[in-house]
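Internal ticket - ligand job 493, NPW:
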Amino acid sequence: MAKGRDNWLLTPSAMGEVDAAAAASGIDSFGLMEKAGQAVTAAVLKLFPGGERFVVLCGPGNNGGDGYVAARALQESGAAVALYHLGDPSKLKGDAATARSRCPVPAEALETYFPMRGDVIVDAIFGAGLARSVPPVVVDIVRRVDEAGAPVVAVDLPSGIDGRTGTVMGAAFKARHTVTFMTRKPGHLLLPGRLHCGSVETVDIGIPFRLVEAKDVHLFVNGPQEWLAALPTTDATAHKFRRGHLTVFSGPATATGAARLAAAAGLRAGAGLVTVATPPDAIAANAAHLTAVMLKAVETGNDLDDYLRDERRTAFVLGPGFGVGPKARAFVTALAATGRHLVLDADGITAFAEDPQALFSAFADGAPRLVLTPHEGEFARLFPDLADDPALSKVDRARQAAARANAAVVYKGADSVIAAPDGRAVINENAPASLATAGSGDVLAGIVGGLLAQGMPAFEAAAAGVWLHGEAASKAGASLTAETLINHIDRWH
Ligand SMILES: NC(=O)C1=CN([C@@H]2O[C@H](COP(=O)(O)OP(=O)(O)OC[C@H]3O[C@@H](n4cnc5c(N)ncnc54)[C@H](OP(=O)(O)O)[C@@H]3O)[C@@H](O)[C@H]2O)[C@@H](O)CC1
Ligand SMILES: Nc1ncnc2c1ncn2[C@@H]1O[C@H](COP(=O)(O)OP(=O)(O)O)[C@@H](O)[C@H]1O
Ligand SMILES: [K+]
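stdout (structure tokens):
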């Protein structure tokens, strides 16, 4: 499946380079700004056909330039338009200066703007060029607009959102709609940025897409184009042993449910055989609730060695309900030493908090066989320095973690990022908030384990698993529980 334009992401700096390449190839850069401003105007008029007054807020760079184009076009459409500028507009340069010189709408200083009833705001203060926290006057205007409840249409990004990281730089508008150009930026998907964008529209302003593709930053929106070719298919020759064997480790008798959720999810994701490997004291609890999933007592390191003699047992999930301690570390080390594929989740991750390097060393060699699925707290236990570095985006953190651990990393959240040691990364956007429910992470671990069992490489299995989890949640509806979620997992093709 081709990488569609909707899946492409460019950081603001990469977009700036594309912009420069377009100008160098002879494309009229003011023409691009004109198209950008016209597209904003079309979006504003479509969303607010009865708008009483359109208030365009223009900043000191090209984002402001788009605003001057929009102000002119809105006035030409017959609408009432007011214009406010940040800084000294006589200092505008290049295309933005041209746009201002062609804009007949009189402008006033930004600080003098107080929203009136019926105002629709076009936010063209900062876009890709936001370089630091917004100045106090912008903080004030954001607050005034919030308090007035006036609708905002953002040009490129809501001012105050860092397009690379999605971070709020001091303050940021909460837009109803955002019009961006050529591709979305990471800040449109990463939290909290995503919550400030409203609906996002990506407009082709005429930069040849080959210039965008030449800037491939190995970052995409998660979707089937990333992993469909690696997704296992079943055909008439399918046999349960050929469809792989997944083993999920159960916790003690008091904590068995999480493993069963993962096991059932692995089966739904297509693993031919699934076994819950359980301590003997939990056999009864597990046996009372399992049908298609098999059960095997595995208590000690020797039990595990015996279990691992069957080389068809290739894929494992360890962590949900397992307990934190030396047993988790010893089991993981044995799985690593025998070339197994492992999803390490929850307690399995926490078990290595004191010595993450022991985990990374165990899986250091060869193609990645480990998938780590930390939520934010677990991520910080394995990668405290990355979690603490404010300059890193969630994408940077996941990528550096993946490289360090030689693992596919699923950095979970509403904006899960999946990264590979080779630098590939995707941001997931199909997960509904109804997934914030106990046990949904166990289900995800099971789906990914089921895909690993079928031979899918770690990064592809991780990305596909997160996407299929999101699809299942959407189908399961707003009141989903981890159990109902499982019933909606669909291998999709
Ligand atoms: N990509 C494309 O193809 C196309 C892109 N287009 C548009 O161009 C936009 C990018 O333009 P841009 O690079 O001029 O950046 P922009 O966001 O206007 O801000 C830069 C200005 O703000 C200033 N500044 C920054 N932070 C600040 C702060 N905290 N507080 C105060 N000042 C601050 C900074 O000043 P400096 O940092 O130099 O002091 C500079 O003056 C892009 O978002 C899109 O809308 C379209 O026109 C068509 C084609
Ligand atoms: N608000 C949200 N929107 C979308 N997905 C979410 C949200 N909150 C959590 N999720 C997803 O739900 C799962 C929760 O996993 P986890 O935090 O391990 O919870 P648990 O331990 O309860 O299973 C993850 O896949 C995460 O990405
Ligand atoms: K903006």
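Auto-summary: The two ends are 13 Å apart (CA to CA). The longest helix spans residues 29-47.
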